[in-house]
Amino acid sequence: MEEEQNTREKLVRGISRWDLTAIAVNTVIGTGIFLLPAKVTGLIGNYSLFAFVACALIVGLIVVCFAEVSSRFETTGGMYLYAREAFGSAVGFEVGWLYWVVRVTTFATNCNALLIYLGFFLAGANEGFWRYFIVSAVVLVISVVNFIGVRQSTWMTNIFTVGKLVPLFIFALVGMFFINPANFTFGEAPETGKFAEAVLVLIYAFVGFEAAVIPAGETKDPQKNVPFALLTALGFCAVLFIIIQIVAIGTLPGLGTSERPLAEAAGNFMGSFGAAFIAVGALVSILGNLNGGYLASSRIPFAMAEQKELPQILAKTHKQFKTPYVSIILTSVVIFIFTIQTSFLTALTIATITRLLVYAVTCASLPVFRSRADAPPAKYTAPFGIAAAVLSLILIVWLLTRVDYQKEGLVMLIMAAIGLDIYITYGFYKIRKTFNDELKTSQSVNPKLSKFTQTNFLKALLASVAVIFLNLLIIDLLNLFIFNLKGFLLILHLIVVTFMTYKVVYIKTNS
Questions:
Q1: Cys-Cys with 227: which of 180, 311, 350, 380 at CB 3.0–4.6 Å?
Q2: pTM, two decimal places
């Protein structure tokens, strides 16, 4: 309760029910629906329609679990808090860390997609100087808006929501009159593995809803409004996406090979103006998605610092704007570096795999909370909640079996190892700090350590050795296996290790 009070004092509850729904819609409708219809069709042809339906059902089960679990909490943190409460601090930390990685990689994915669609108007937007300039400008503007205040961020989100929905509605409504039934031919059914691969790729178009659960500490009546926003956003987006895919198949014969499928389909039935109109809509949609996702990503380090699992400097809020400015600055720097280092498909796959793992933990927490008498009470009870949780976990495991772990999966595993590294190092730093505090409060000049203090000292000594070995192992893995991300991950890891190991080893005594 004390932590909840601290959050209420530091942050402003300026997000209404419909603001939160707009955030959820904005983070779901981003890059995916403008690019993935072509990629999924290229994998399994017109059976992509069934992949859309399957994906909507899978994500629907997950959202039902999120709706109930989120109704138990009213502070900032989302999946991190759920995992921490259900499974303990170690699992909670890994979930928080991995979801922060998800949001960083998602931002990189969408920003790279923004550059692809900008290529419709500006040749070379995804190369050289223009790439660096555009990424820098986007990150800077979004960071400043989120720094100024949560209300300003939600205003921008609402504007982008309207701006992205108008072209999608026009595409769907006008395109329905130009559908060619001859385009809907179904050949031999795809193999199960190929269909699963298509669903895994397509999941990226449906996810993002979870960003709405993160800023609960800045939401009005979050235990009621968060479930409403999640369920409303998913139902709306699922129907819209399926209609858009029907129009895309019916109006663009070469859908499977298109680089900008919706823009090219609109060009077929609305001319060059239609293509440009959809391209502008894609840009607005991606920008809105970037802003909504950034709001969530910048709050994760803040929430973890609030729980004293990251350095307390990340829990600082600006006196005037009431925003977690240190967490915002850190997130902006990492986002910029990762975006420059990656391409659209690389970042997309990493984000999808890691997100599914985070989803699995939240789904697993639903039966745990229901079985515990001391669990926070739920303001929303999901129908067939246990069945939804079990089915969600089975489907997530099924999708994860389709991952190539020697490529995309290994990146996720190493990022999880880095998170464990940070958790262990910072945890034992706190032990050393306790030891230092005990020395300071000792009455003698040359104090004899108490048994408790000796125990803490031995733990800290063993921790230092363990951290050194863990660091060496992770660096070896980075050097052996990581490809285009090696430089970025190695630099990130070395910065973290240098700072945290210094904190573990260094003791300022008063001798």
A1: 380
A2: 0.77
